[in-house]
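Saturday, quiet lab. Running sequence design on the structure tokens for the scaffold JK sent over.
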């Protein structure tokens, strides 16, 4: 029973000054995670989308070609799929676009 008293006093001091409604509102606000759950859900969907990009799945070779970056999947530009850009990220985005266009042309 002696260990219970300090806990009781600490809790009582934290909630003093609140009426019943103020306390319940404060507790409800502290435990409302719906906004955080939506953020986690959104981030999960973003990661899932990124992991399905052709540049992630097929990992094209990235190299400098003149003054631009080239993301190439295949042995050469004529037989493979490539993307070009001023940065590696832009080259990968162009590769994704070209890969998707390549697939629709084949179908």
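Result came back. Writing it out in full:
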């Amino acid at each position: 029973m002696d260990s219970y008293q300090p806990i009781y006093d600490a809790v009582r001091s934290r909630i003093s000054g609140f009426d019943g409604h103020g306390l319940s509102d404060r507790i409800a606000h502290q435990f409302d995670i719906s906004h955080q759950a939506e953020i986690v859900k959104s981030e999960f969907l973003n990661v899932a989308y990124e992991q399905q990009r052709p540049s992630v799945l097929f990992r094209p070779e990235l190299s400098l070609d003149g003054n631009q970056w080239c993301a190439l999947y295949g042995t050469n530009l004529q037989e493979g799929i490539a993307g070009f850009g001023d940065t590696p990220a832009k080259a990968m985005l162009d590769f994704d676009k070209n890969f998707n266009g390549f697939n629709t042309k084949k179908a």
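Notes for JK: Strands lie at 61-65, 68-73, 81-85. The chain has two domains: 1-32, 51-106. Ask whether to fix the surface positions before the next round.
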